[in-house]
Amino acid sequence: MRLDYPTRSEFKIVDFAFLSSESGDRWAMVIVQNQALDSRTFTEDQLIGFFADGRHRKPIRLRERIEGSKTETIVISFGDSDTPLVQLLTRGF
């Protein structure tokens, strides 16, 4: 499976925790820092989640505006999966 890298951005993942439901819903609670001086919007193209079975995918409908140099905690949905999330990937400059 070919990895489509996330779009480059000025966001840094400071910390994260994975959440799931018994029915297979997968989320990531993520502390994200905007390293730019101006406001930026964190979108699904700037993040990829990796699953325990080797698959990867973008989050579902992510669009979070974060002020310049600020840190926010957001919960991000990755939809349903039989296997858990194990890693997140962003791509800086």
How is this structure best described in words?
The strands form 3 sheets. Strands 1-2-7 form a 3-stranded antiparallel sheet, with no helix packed on it. The protein has a 3-stranded antiparallel sheet with strand order 5-4-8, with no helix packed on it. A two-stranded antiparallel ribbon has the order 3-6. The radius of gyration is 13 Å and the shape is globular. The mean pLDDT is 96. The chain has strands spanning 11-20, 25-34, 40-43, 48-51, 56-57, 63-66, 71-80, 85-89. Strand 1 and strand 2 form a beta hairpin. The protein is mostly beta strands and 93 residues long. It has no helices and 8 strands. It has one domain: Immunoglobulin-like (Sandwich), CATH 2.60.40.10. It is 0% helix and 53% strand. The two termini are 25 Å apart.
Keywords:
single chain; Immunoglobulin-like; mainly beta; three-stranded antiparallel sheet; 93 residues
The total count of strands amounts to 8
Unreliable runs: none
Q: How confident overall, as mean pLDDT?
A: 96
Trace the largest sheet across and list its strands.
Answer: 1-2-7
Strand count, sense and barrel status of the largest sheet are: 3 strands, antiparallel
SSE sequence, one letter per element: EEEEEEEE
CATH architectural group: Sandwich
- How much of the sequence lies in strands comes to over 45%
